[in-house]
Design brief:
Number of helices: 2
Oligomer: single chain
Strand content: 35-45%
Helix content: 10-25%
Strand order of the largest sheet: 1-2-3-6-5-4
Shape: elongated
Distance between the termini: 61 Å
Length: 141
């Protein structure tokens, strides 16, 4: 499910900024070309609910690496991210509302923190038996 949330955030960034920035969802060892975004998972929680449901909370860090490294550019991007990531659409059409959105500057990069919460259902178990038959007869005296 976390990959679906990351995909929704990545698609939202790509659509909102018309593909002007590369969006990375995996670690980039070399060849990182700013300006770009890097999406990482900071924290994830799972709280069981009744029956086969669970409440999942995913906290993400969307890092913006600018080309100019100016504070003005970072602050402008942070304001854009507040509106862009406030509501994201999953691939199945459902929408996730963001909360705990905040940002900070770390070593010249913008770290935009956002949290999404959703309810998930456990996958149905497959039957272990392929067929089953029961015969019961009551015998007479």
């Amino acid at each position: 499910m976390i990959t679906d949330v990351i995909t929704a955030v990545s698609r939202t960034l790509d659509e909102r900024f018309d593909g002007a920035y590369a969006v990375h969802t995996e670690k980039v060892e070399q060849g990182l070309a700013p300006p770009c975004f890097i999406i990482t998972v900071v924290d994830a929680e799972n709280t069981p609910l009744l029956r086969d449901r669970a409440n999942r909370v995913y906290a993400l860090d969307v890092v913006y690496i600018s080309k100019s490294n100016t504070n003005a550019e970072m602050y402008a991007m942070a304001d854009k991210l507040f509106s862009a990531l406030g509501l994201v659409t999953m691939t199945d059409g459902s929408r996730l509302l963001a909360y705990n959105m905040r940002y900070e500057e770390v070593d010249g990069d913008l770290h935009f923190f956002v949290t999404y919460q959703l309810t998930v259902r456990a996958p149905e178990d497959e039957d272990a038996m392929e067929s089953y038959s029961l015969n019961s007869e009551i015998g007479g005296i």
